[in-house]
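Continuing from the previous page of notes. For each protein in this section, the sequence appears first, followed by its structure tokens. Read the first protein now.
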Amino acid sequence: MELVGRKREIELLQNALKSTQSELVAVYGRRRVGKTFLINKVFAKSKYFEITGLHNGNMTDQLQHFSTELLSQWKSKRKLQEPKSWMEAFGQLSDFISASNSTKKKVIFIDEFPWMDTPKSKFMMGFENFWNSYASKRHDLVVVICGSAAAYMVKKVIRNRGGLHNRITQRIRLAPFNLHETEVFLHQKGIKLTRYDILQLYMVMGGVPHYLEKITKGESVAQIVDRLCFEDGGALKNEFQNIFESLFNQHEKHVAVIKALASKKKGLTRSQLLEISGLPSGGTFTKIVEELTESGFIGLNLPYKKKVKDALYRLTDEFSLFYLKFMQGNKQSGSGTWFTLHKSQSFAAWSGLSFESICLKHVSQLKNALGISAIYSQNASWSGNNAQIDLLIDRADNVITVCEMKFYNQEYTMTKKYADELRAKLFEFKQNALPAKKILFLCMVTTYGIKTNKYSLEQVQNQVKADDLFAF
């Protein structure tokens, strides 16, 4: 497979190769998002040494693995004593690098870096010494440290207050694919689906490359979802448990936060999240929320004209929402499961929520479709006594665009009832929140557009279709 998207990330990595000094690059992001694939592709001809930490390995396991890998990659077949400490291990790595006569940039790739930092091992002390006393003094190294434990990478590496303080020269947080990248990825695999089909799959599994890789040619959306999520042995059937167990210690608490957020469409404040999750307030809770945020499972949304303490946490991971809505506790399984669920009221509620979440991730494409990408704006939500706006775009040209999002399998027909609801919602916003100098535009974001009738003509100033969200 060729690399899809990742233009900015590729440029940053290539710049590290071109640099006239040694570079320390930190790459992080949730599991399955393609971090290792990206690094291996960009640095295919430049890697000098690479190692991947052992999941659940202790200090002895990690050191033995390090020694074995170093010996196997040292072409001189020099005998090495197994290191008893990380200071000794990184000293051997320094000797290995110094043995090269090449003046070209050499990439040292340490994957799953957090797994190597076992309790009381002094791993970070050894690595800090390696970088500060050896690697940074050379001009021909790119040291890449990569990890799925995003919170660890941010706290222990990027925000390090010790020997690595301000030493990271490039940081890359790798996110799942957007809709455009997902479409290109599937086309590269020879899978020709309509954009409506791709949108449905994105609502189930998001833009996680590892999940998309499991899609094969010649299947409908219902067949794909049944095979991956509901059939025995399905690749995603146990993924929810596996991903949290592998990423977080005390993962049950992280799952409690995810489940609490999945129960509320509009999101939850910190105090509401504490109450519904049943977790105690304090530093541990703050750490859990930070870890989930940095790993891309949840996001923070600041309501219009509100303070930070009023910010809302929202579940942003499509697969987690799908799993909790349909897979957890579902007694149905096998062929036909998704086709049956597809007709339920639960599907209608879930698809609307998931589509809204996807739109919130593609605001730049939405703004481009509206022709306002060059106008400075801020995005927010708003809640009144009887109304909820999930996305409003507060623009510097004295316009606030209110976005209403509707997922439908054909052109959306605005009814009198819905038009009355919209009118009441916008009136409440005007009365309670709209600044005097601002005007209000309503934008409908739908899958296939809006059928023109007297209600849409009265209410809607702009519309955006799902096709627009696939823009580059």
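Done with the first. The second protein uses the same format. Note its length before scrolling.
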Amino acid sequence: MALVRRRPSGEIESIRRDIERMFEELGEWPGRFRPWWGRRWLARVAYFPTLDMFDKKDEIVIKAELPGIEKEEVDISVTEDTLTIKGEAKKEEEIKDEDYYCCERSYGSFSRSIDLPVAVQPEKVKATFKDGMLEIHLPKAAKPKGVKVEVK
């Protein structure tokens, strides 16, 4: 009987390769993490509108993609530090044949809350919706002036 040298580091390397292959098969995930269930599964059960948020001198502007959604189906609420966008993406047609090659579009209700980087004036928020793009302008709240405190 021949003795075979055991290499524990080789077993660990094999496990690492298997895990990397699993994540490659699940597909890329936007952001800093990849959940174990993969993007393909998530696309079937959840809808999260993508958005851009940028800072102008006197306002915060948010642009959100809402393809296939009517403006009457969008609900926007704002507090001084949070914006919430709600709505529902409805399936356009019922396909009786189950011979899909690929189904990546997402459907269903969604609600997305965004923490705003600065306080805004909720009563002055304006939004426009055109061709599936929602644009929200959130005027910044006036910065409180500093008060000098006398130390006694």
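What the second structure shows: Confidence is low (pLDDT under 50) at residues 29-34, 36-45. The CA atoms of residues 43 and 104 lie 6 Å apart. We return to this in next week's lecture.
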